[in-house]
Structures are given as C-alpha cells and as structure tokens.
Amino acid sequence: TQLLEQSPQFLSIQEGENLTVYCNSSSVFSSLQWYRQEPGEGPVLLVTVVTGGEVKKLKRLTFQFGDARKDSSLHITAAQPGDTGLYLCAGARSQYGQNFVFGPGTRLSVLP
Amino acid sequence: GAVVSQHPSWVICKSGTSVKIECRSLDFQATTMFWYRQFPKQSLMLMATSNEGSKATYEQGVEKDKFLINHASLTLSTLTVTSAHPEDSSFYICSARRQTRINTEAFFGQGTRLTVV
Predict the structure, then answer these.
(1) Which of A51, B14, B69, B75 could form a disulfide with B56 if both were Cys (CB 3.0 to 4.6 A apart)?
(2) Residue in B43, B105, B109 nearest the CB of A102
(3) B23-49, pLDDT tens digit by residue?
(4) A44 CB contacts (<8 Å, ≥6 apart)?
C-alpha cells in the first residue's frame, strides 16, 4: 500500500505553462518535504512544510500543505526547461523521523 | 544546510568484483542512514536501513549477503556490492535524516552510478 500518492505520474508541458503536482495521503504527517531529482543526481530538498495550511514560495514554485496535513501541492508558474526532473514528496509521520515515506514521484518534462 | 556526500559518483567494475560506496553526513550526526536503488525513469526503491552500531535492516527481496552495509560511525555508512554482476548495474543513492525540534528532513547523496561489465 502506497502511503503517499502523487499525481500526475508523468507530465509533459511547453515552456511557459503552469502546472500543479499533488501529493495525497490518508495519513497525517508532522511535516512534508518536496524534492527535485535531475538525471544522474540525487534528490535535492526544495522545501519543508510543517504547519497545516502553510504556503511557501521558492521563486516560481509555490508549495502548500493541506489544512489537515494529509496532502500537499506544488505549483510551478511559467515552467522552464530547467524545471525538468522527478519531483518527490516525502512525509514524516512524527517529528522523530519514524515512518518517513516517499511518494512514487512525478516526472516532469518541460519542452522548449 | 545539511549535506550528505556520496562517493564515488560513478564506478565501472568487472563482473565478480566487489564495489564499496561511501555515504557521509557532513555537518550532522546520523544514527540511521538509508540506501536506495533507482532504475531508469523510476522512483527510489528502499534497499536497507543502516543503523550505527548494529545490523542493517533489509527490505524484502534484498540479499543482505549481496549488499553488505556497515555503519561504523555516526557520520559514515558504506554499501558494498559483493561479487557484482551486470544486473547489479544501477543508480544507488544514500540518505540521512536530520532531526530538529520540530521536524525531520531527509537529505540525499549525489548518487553512485554503478556499471558492471
């Protein structure tokens, strides 16, 4: 059973378009992280959200943690080819790091 | 920010030889580290959990005698692929989690591309 679901699994868009990636679960998380992985490299931490309803912005990326802390979204505005990669969400079931789970990932391709 | 360093970034070895991959947490102590394997265009697959000072915990289907894990210190875990075969060729990634008072964050190494010829 996948504790964290991500949608869509694959996304191919043109440069300049907007997109949203979703991370959903029936479980409550104490915190949730988003990562981006480029080919041939390890995942890089983009953001951590901790508070229900929290919104964080990282340039053209907007991250939101659901009010109930069961889901999260990543919105990219005016996507660029450099945004291409595998986006992973990960949730910690407790602040002590137990039951840290990863979603299956969303593979984004931004075409010039 | 916290950094996890993995070495080597890539390695080519002959079939039958063993390869050691190192994973270091550079500015925090990690009593637990994690080893993942990633196939092309797929997500991360957890292989094993490395525990400092005790035996590693392997996921179902992962051969512990094939993938030897040693976590001798609070900042270093090693994965040794023994008697490597071409089917072991893959991208291996380690991770360590930093725990703060309010949350836990996972940081990844750069990954190691293993090619067995």
Answers:
(1) B69
(2) B43
(3) 999 988 888 899 999 988 888 888 999
(4) A35, A36, A37, A38, B108
